[in-house]
Specification:
homodimer; alpha/beta; Rossmann fold; 3 domains; six-stranded parallel sheet; 22 strands; elongated
Chain lengths: 785, 785
Amino acid sequence: MSESRTFSPYSDEDLEADLRWWSAANYLTVAQIYLQDNTLLREPLRAEHIKPRLLGHWGTSPGLSAIYTVLNRVIRQTDSDWLFVTGPGHGGPALVANVYLEGTYSEIYPDVSTDARGIHRLCRQFSTPGGIPSHVSVQTPGSIHEGGELGYALAHAAGAAFDHPELLVACVIGDGEAETGPLAASWNVSSFLDPTRDGAVLPILHLNGAKISGPTVMGRRSDDQVANTLRGQGWEPIFVEGDDPRIVFRALISAITQSYNAFRAGNSSNRRPAIVLRTPKGWTGPHEVDGRLVEGTHRAHQVPLSGVRENPEHLRLLENWLRSYRPEELFDDDGRIVSEVAALAPIGDRRMGATPYANGGRILKPLPLPSTDRYALDITRPGATNHPTTRVLGEYLRDIYFADQSADGGGTFRLFCPDETASNRLDAVFEATDRCWQLPLVPEDDNLAPKGRVMEVLSEHLCQGWLEGYLLSGRHGLFASYEAFAMISASMLVQHTKWLQHATRLDWRIPVASLNILLTSTCWRNDHNGFSHQGPGLIDAVLSLSPDVVRVWLPPDANTLLSIAEHCFRSRDHVNVIVADKQPHLQYLSIDDAERQCAAGASTWDWAGNESDTTQPDVVLAAAGDVPTQEILAAAQLLREWTPEICFRVVNVIDLMALLPESAHPHGMPDSHFIDLFAATTDVVFAFHGYPRAVHQLLHGRPAANRFHVRGFSEQGTTTTPFDMVVLNRMSRYHLVSEALTWIGRDDPAARRLADHCRSQLERHYHYVRENFEDMPEVRDWTWS
Amino acid sequence: MSESRTFSPYSDEDLEADLRWWSAANYLTVAQIYLQDNTLLREPLRAEHIKPRLLGHWGTSPGLSAIYTVLNRVIRQTDSDWLFVTGPGHGGPALVANVYLEGTYSEIYPDVSTDARGIHRLCRQFSTPGGIPSHVSVQTPGSIHEGGELGYALAHAAGAAFDHPELLVACVIGDGEAETGPLAASWNVSSFLDPTRDGAVLPILHLNGAKISGPTVMGRRSDDQVANTLRGQGWEPIFVEGDDPRIVFRALISAITQSYNAFRAGNSSNRRPAIVLRTPKGWTGPHEVDGRLVEGTHRAHQVPLSGVRENPEHLRLLENWLRSYRPEELFDDDGRIVSEVAALAPIGDRRMGATPYANGGRILKPLPLPSTDRYALDITRPGATNHPTTRVLGEYLRDIYFADQSADGGGTFRLFCPDETASNRLDAVFEATDRCWQLPLVPEDDNLAPKGRVMEVLSEHLCQGWLEGYLLSGRHGLFASYEAFAMISASMLVQHTKWLQHATRLDWRIPVASLNILLTSTCWRNDHNGFSHQGPGLIDAVLSLSPDVVRVWLPPDANTLLSIAEHCFRSRDHVNVIVADKQPHLQYLSIDDAERQCAAGASTWDWAGNESDTTQPDVVLAAAGDVPTQEILAAAQLLREWTPEICFRVVNVIDLMALLPESAHPHGMPDSHFIDLFAATTDVVFAFHGYPRAVHQLLHGRPAANRFHVRGFSEQGTTTTPFDMVVLNRMSRYHLVSEALTWIGRDDPAARRLADHCRSQLERHYHYVRENFEDMPEVRDWTWS
């Protein structure tokens, strides 16, 4: 990290120049919200110049532009890389205005040229069909953060800073966002950012005092209270306050340069600089409208003048407002920004709209992936041995850490996990690195160090947000979560999916590494915790999201998990949901078979069925997931032993999206292939990891979809034994056999004997487990033979 | 609120008595985790006395019991009502032990009697099949808070305190939980609890320093930092620290009595008392095991001695540990707790396990509901007029507030909403009450007051958590959310559903008011915001949860919304998800028709179809939701006008669960009724509010389910116009007509002309909206005629 530096004094000329940039940004912000014509105000403003629908958020915009303006100067002086994270992302027009002024916008979108025609287009495209959305979004150059669902700005900022020692991230946090849970927890990033290995995050808490229609908690608290809140969480606040731009700009540049020097000094103080900026909401906008105060109140939140087309007084106020920025002095006759203002922008990739840190694909290097063969279990006979499935993945991740780690202790890969890395049996990674921790250490700590690069914090929001920021700034990672608690950050996964969905449509957005999430400690094997820990709902939450982005993987064993992991780490712009439990499970496939079957998505397990060349199956037994696979195989074995005349096929589904039609998902299979696997009219007993209806929805439209009888997690759970879980949810081997016999419709003595056996085993289970507090040996120790 | 009081001094005898209670609680905690026999240690401990599977969390338990013990004394002295919220709910055995000692447990579960037989059963049932789960849960007397997914303790505590001026809520927050987002945001409850109208919340931040396998952020921070964090957010911390029980108990009772007096003084200071309790994790448990420190480290988190059955040294350590509590002095020959210890429990409903505040149905009064007629829109012709649908609900809610409000400014109903009450057009409620706000006021504030009872905070987690606490302690409420952002607290909704699912199986849990959530500002009409605000995924997240609890309602207009709202406010133990947009929409049904159709769940709209007594429909046009209903009717009108010879039926679905089979949901309809509505083989073009696959999954197994062609939100969105949204998602009237024509298979000139018309209208739309930034008049102003 470079040294701190002495900044040249902020002269009056500098200030006036900056205020002109700011005026230009504010002008273009208001113009985007209101104008469809006469966008440079070259003639008197008339109703027909106003858009018919006024959409956009003025309130936060001038503050954002003020920060952007001042940062531009600091960047020019220091020649440093800054990333701008816009927490109050509603202020989309402000960010667009600034990246337009710095030239980035026109380079990326040449149609929006740097002249009057470009400004006309800039205004018309804003918040209009076929144009750009009103919030900071994937379309906005320089952004890694969607300005919609609030709460994740500071987590994203930290994610981008990890392992980017040269980077400085300015993270603006609105006081609305500051009320959210994820943001409130994000102040703790101070305990995880290493002062030398990681970049710096400069939170700028922008207190403008109001949300849509009321005050904000932080905005209404005293400076003392705000300072205490930040100090307690590892930050040293610098207050910048006022409504006089000249005072605020001077104080702001002083606060930022002071912060810059503190970062560059690189001390590991527990007090990292943070700026608290109090400026009026809707600053420089209409002060009063229709006799009511607007500036500085919640009434400035969106469109402070709403009746402009109909109300001549509003039209007059709007024209005065626009002219107050003196557009004629900011844009030349061609509509180009005048050169002395344009010169205030940094150069090239230092421009915050052009920084490669916000277009991570530009700096992404493929992850050095060891060959999976080295970690694969040696499987000579399927279903004969048990192994904790995720442990093998832990060893693979350990060696990814080793292969990727740079000499200076950095790297491009991190594992994110609420305090569960060891619990999830991924603890082999601690042979390569430690848990990251900037607070004091004690002798009893295990695998904990400031330079550690495994990210553990008891917040799924932080884990997910950090990983998102890490990926979008050009790195790789994995979020490992207890399955049930992945729902905590489900909305973040949805928003990230939306981001990727739109990113793939933009040529200039270079693909980034996929967001990989491992759901482990699953519903079937949280028998030691209980119902609150049992929930496979994340699958349902992602199934209907963009098929170009979402994949759901259900590897039945360790070697398939390895193969899927490798695929996911190589993939780009996807969201991969991988479901695999951590407990010891039966292992089935050699690594070669695993790779073939993962690529196929769904396969027949010939060794488990009893078809011959001349028979057609009476029933298909299908499974997706580790516990379902075990139960369907145990069911198959019962059928084979008790009713050898019944012909059945066993199918295993690893890639859940393969069940969809081709038209619905790139992994979807055509009906012909579907029939090859599941036959055309045969009943299918399907044991599924999650809620049965997740499969039902995928099967809609398939030939005779009603013949699929799906058993899965039916929301029955508690603290109990593993087998009791499958019994409670009626997915046990005995339930599956009974279901198969029912649909086959056989009533011969052998079938009846088997049905009786299943009933009596379930009865026995009930008594056995209540006497012995553990499962019957014949199910506990069952293997395929 | 009562006066503060002078507490009698805490004598040595008091302390020793309390320590005996604490020993008894700790003994029973360890016994529950380990013992299946010899539960009172009347003989030497042998391997066969130990459970085969050791499940449970020791680490947090002794701290929880210490707090419980001291609170019992305070309750006896003050004769006050306390509710105990156990954030570290993993400590289930500790809470069970305490409510057993106070007698509540045996009153509720007589099988677990107050003698040796009862203790034997208490131990055997813990964490075993058919027994009780390992966490504090719905089965635990005195709990309103499931100890699984962390983050909601303080929100639940505040929810229970609102409008319960006599209640004191002790809310234990673990330092693991303190890292979560929802908990971090919950410190802000200080800005919403009114000191006189509401009860008091006493947060007890229990810093034992470790999570499963690592340190905690708060635990490792200095007292100064913790104090600053709390002070900044409105709390005055009282530190209690140590590992000597005699010192800690004295300090703790002093902290609690001091807090009690501060609450009873009732001042509205910005500094409410909060206790910070630092005690060792696994306090009084094995100090060292196998040469490694355990007590005070993360190794004490779950089962500190894990090899007891196989390892004689572990067995010996366990016996010493158990005997260290001197069970022989705590339980008499019959195994009854000795009388001088039993006498430490409060009496009757003052016992925290028996408080009616934790069994809200006991104190729940029906909500006084005005007749919906008074708010109903007067509909003489369907689809002829527009009205903002939620506005009518706002008027109804206003009068519920009026009818329910008590003379002292309290009540039993609250509306919870992130800063969006006005945006969601429910602002009529401000005629009855204000937004709740304990921070300073300024003249420009609208509808803001300390006594306000509309709860606005920009945190879906807090809104949801407050409502959950409010309901479980015996009141009524509604959470109104932007539809997309309801996903933020989806995991909470899942957990609350699980709670209700198990609660309904317990006779002693008296039914509570349903959790009602209004999803408004929906995906179809967030055209002014954009893609991040467009997501109907909450429907998918709840569909597979317990059918005994979950209902999803899609009222197409204001009168149906009123009818559904009334039904939901009367219902008990349900989770009602109601989807209705706030924008002006066409209105269809009189209040009488609305009530009939809401009760029916799904109905034929005869006036919209063109069947006669002698015809069978060529196609069924179905819709669920406001925008889908509008588009399906517009499609019907096109068919009627352009191809009058095509016979079609229009069906409207309000109760989504009615689509399920009878066997799958109490609202499910039998196939016979299903065929009456949708015919048996006719193609159905179904316009749906949410993701189409949400309907697909419900239809699985229905006669010829493949004939249902569902159009819905297909994850296409941006800032655009209302009609462009339905076009982007291919659910516009023109798409629906094309779909119908395709399936009918007509190729006559009229059908071809209509198909051409649809194509050309879509083409026209594309150009029109890009020129005019608004929708074509014929769709914008369309009404049914």
